[in-house]
Write a structure and sequence with these properties.
Layout (H helix, E strand, L loop, with lengths): L2 H14 L16 H14 L10 H6 L12 H13 L13 H14 L10 H8 L13 H18 L10 H15 L9 H5 L11 H13 L13 H13 L10 H8 L11 E3 L6 H9 L4 E5 L8 H9 L3 E6 L11 H18 L6 E5 L6 H22 L4 E6 L1 H9 L5 E4 L18 E11 L6 E8 L14 H8 L9 E15 L2 E13 L7 E2 L10 H10 L9 H6 L2 H4 L5 E6 L3 E13 L6 E14 L4 H15 L6 E3 L6 E3 L2 H23 L17
Parallel strand pairs: 1-2, 2-3, 3-4, 4-5, 5-6, 6-7
Antiparallel strand pairs: 1-8, 7-8, 9-10, 10-14, 11-13, 12-13, 13-14, 15-16
Helix pairs in contact: 1-2, 2-4, 7-8, 8-10, 15-16, 15-23, 16-17, 22-23
């Protein structure tokens, strides 16, 4: 608690209570927007203005100029100045309303910190504005860059009469970025509004060149430094340090590397899109690509196209094959709820990652593909901490527990990308730079790990080949995927064909066929999958309803029975492990039985899952898998290991006494038959996930059926 700030708050409440609609402020001794607004409202009341507590053009126009040379000053206005100085951390003496030597010293110190030369104690609209319209400071903030503070002070020193004062806290920000644009516009001889436009772009000088005067070179040096390229000093001279910084920046932004800072360099330094008319080799779109649209893209020089993994305009298997067959790479993007800031939390990150990974797997993306999870909304810095980073933590938890190798990328504004990468939760950034109004773009450098830079929406082609795209610059660090291997074959085709039953309704069993999974001299594994579909209405929202019993068995009794058939030395309690899942599965049955014919002992497990695809239960699907594991009665320990090796080779699951049952989360230490069974369950989980994905309801990846997140 700051006692001088507390005194200011108490004085405001005592002096202005019941006047001009003044709202009492919290008396906590902490500078905040409430206190700043209270000081502004107080000044407005003294000036006879409407007291909304917001600094604006009218308040600025009517603001007086006061100093130690004035006589007969309004004591309340002096006290407001003193309170504003207290809130900025300056000693203004006492809250007396008298313009004392300490008050004068506080004003002078503020001006010196701001970078003004020949600072005096005169406080006019410029000083009142910085005290009453911003929370930013004029001293070097903890951990910030003193060179950026020097840039801010120099901009104030050279341009304050036109642009006012910007904070000098060493933090590159929107204010600093706009001040640089305004300063450039002043040197160009145009109106300094701080808005990058065609006129500003066209008047940019080329350095070195005929307009290489000291002020332009200084602004170039400043702009390079705040974008991470040190020109080796701010002297207004063109030397080797500046030349190398220009080349480094050009290479980083994928501009021609020639050491000349022309229009494109200035644009890339000062506005997030850079030169928005640059032609990229990558694009993304929300349209299903046909052959005609693909031809349009290729004719315009595009080699990579970004497509959505889920949603209304999701990439389909046939589309993926068409794109890659025409020698274009595909960039996988997950953007189901990216426009909703409220969606971003750790739990939803975990769930979204499962959806994205299943979709990517079904579409045949290689497991080293980068999946870009979208944050397509305006996010303030504190919201990155509160929402976005926890979301990507959830994405990474899913990646770890699923055991997939997909790489995590992010599509977002500059600051969001950089902070998530710095937290270790992403490895590649797809920057939405064309969203110039996003809080995380203006005043932030391009992320170090950027791979794609989205700069402009445009429409290409005509007729059937017409397509709207976002034009993207590709850095070359990731090129998307050239080859995809969508799930096809018998299972894929049959499941895809289920949609034809909508035309005539009724019941249809798509297939039920026992197939051999593994066969060795001492081990046989067969499986059968059946899908029974009943249709009596239109598709709607997906719900997974734990339902149906098989042979009256419950989870616990099933696994008690299963555990009883295993060698106790080779297993840890299956019943205890699967009980963890019971709250999610309810009474859904997993039936288990053992039989022997004297030569083979057969362990048989049946798993039914009933899924409703309509909130009114008009469409239901019952999926069932039946697995038989037969081990020769005289088989030894080496035969069991041979079986484990066979299952591992077939399924891709490494079985060395540790098996992941299901797709996520529950790690169970098993051995012998249980290890084989665990691998089969894991494999079936992928099959079931594939089936659900092919129906278009990616999000249902066995949540609450086989697995439960333990965090």
């Amino acid at each position: 608690m700051d006692q001088l700030v507390l005194k200011t708050q108490q004085w405001l409440n005592e002096t202005y209570a019941g006047k001009g609609g003044f709202n009492a402020i919290t008396e906590d001794g902490i500078t905040g927007w409430g206190t700043i607004g209270g000081l502004t409202a107080a000044l407005q009341i003294e000036l006879g203005l409407a007291s909304d507590g917001i600094w604006g053009a009218t308040t600025e126009k009517n603001c007086p100029t006061i100093s130690s040379n004035n006589s007969g000053l309004n004591k309340n206005i002096v006290a407001i100045l003193q309170g504003g100085l207290f809130c900025k951390g300056y000693d203004a003496g006492d809250l007396s309303g008298d313009f004392t030597l300490q008050t004068a010293s506080g004003v002078i110190k503020l001006k010196q910190d701001a970078g003004l030369s020949n600072a005096d104690d005169e406080a006019g609209s410029m000083i009142f504005k910085v005290l009453l319209s911003t929370m930013d400071g004029f001293v070097l903030a903890n951990g910030k860059d003193p060179n950026i503070r020097t840039i801010q002070q120099n901009l104030n020193r050279d341009y304050y009469e036109t642009i006012g004062l910007i904070p000098t806290n060493g933090l590159y920000s929107r204010e600093t970025n706009r001040a640089l644009i305004k300063a450039l516009q002043i040197e160009e001889g145009s109106f300094p509004d701080g808005i990058w436009g065609d006129s500003t772009y066209e008047l940019c000088p080329t350095i070195p060149g005929s307009k290489s005067n000291k002020m332009f070179i200084l602004l170039l040096q400043y702009s390079l430094y705040v974008n991470g390229k040190d020109p080796n000093g701010f002297d207004g001279l063109f030397g080797n340090g500046l030349s190398e910084a220009i080349k480094s920046f050009q290479g980083f932004c994928v501009l021609p590397v020639d050491g000349y800072a022309g229009k494109q360099v200035w644009a890339s330094l000062l506005v997030s899109t850079g030169d928005s008319n640059r032609k990229g080799t990558a694009c993304d779109c929300g349209e299903t690509l046909t052959l005609e649209k693909i031809k349009t893209l290729k004719n315009n020089g595009y080699k990579i196209v970004g497509r959505y993994l889920t949603g209304k305009y999701k990439l389909t298997a046939n589309e993926a094959l068409l794109i890659t067959a025409n020698e274009m790479n595909i960039l996988p993007i997950y953007e189901e709820y990216g426009y909703m800031l409220s969606h971003f939390n750790q739990e939803n990150g975990y769930q979204d990652a499962k959806d994205a990974f299943v979709a990517a797997k079904c579409l045949g993306f290689n497991e080293d593909s980068v999946i870009y999870f979208a944050v397509d909304c305006d996010v303030m810095d504190y919201q990155i901490t509160e929402s976005i980073i926890p979301y990507f933590k959830g994405v990474n938890i899913a990646k770890e527990l699923l055991g997939v190798s997909y790489k995590i990328g992010i599509y977002a504004a500059r600051n969001v990308c950089s902070r998530v990468n710095n937290a270790g939760y992403s490895c590649s950034s797809f920057v939405c730079d064309m969203s110039t109004g996003f809080s995380g773009n203006l005043g932030y450098p391009l992320p170090e790990d950027w791979a794609f830079d989205q700069i402009k929406t445009t429409r290409l082609g005509s007729g059937d080949g017409s397509i709207e795209i976002d034009n993207n610059i590709c850095k070359g660090t990731y090129l998307g995927e050239k080859f995809l291997y969508p799930m096809d074959g018998d299972l894929f085709n049959k499941i895809n064909n289920i949609s034809i039953i909508k035309e005539f309704g009724g019941n249809l069993t798509t297939f039920e066929e026992e197939k051999e999974f593994i066969r060795t001299p001492n081990l046989k594994i067969t499986y059968a999958i059946s899908t029974d579909v009943t249709v009596d209405g239109d598709y709607a929202n997906l719900e997974i309803t734990p339902d149906g019993k098989l042979d009256g068995a419950t989870i616990k009794s099933t696994f008690d029975s299963m555990e009883g058939s295993l060698n106790k030395d080779q297993s840890i309690s299956l019943a205890n492990t699967l009980t963890l899942l019971s709250s999610d599965i309810g009474e859904t049955s997993i039936a288990y039985k053992i039989s022997t014919d004297g030569v083979w002992t057969t362990n048989e497990i049946s798993i039914p899952v009933k899924i409703y695809l309509d909130k009114d239960n008009n469409v239901s699907i019952t999926l069932a898998v039946k697995v038989k594991i037969s081990i020769k009665n005289d088989g030894g320990e080496s035969d069991v290991q041979e079986a484990l090796d066979s299952v591992s080779e077939y399924t891709g699951y490494i079985i060395t006494g540790v098996v992941v049952i299901g797709v996520v989360g529950v790690v169970t230490y098993l051995g012998g038959i249980a290890a084989v069974l665990g691998a089969i369950l894991a494999w079936f989980a992928e099959v079931l996930g594939t089936i659900l994905a092919l129906f278009g309801y990616i999000g249902a990846l066995l949540s609450g059926i086989f697995v439960k997140l333990i965090s």
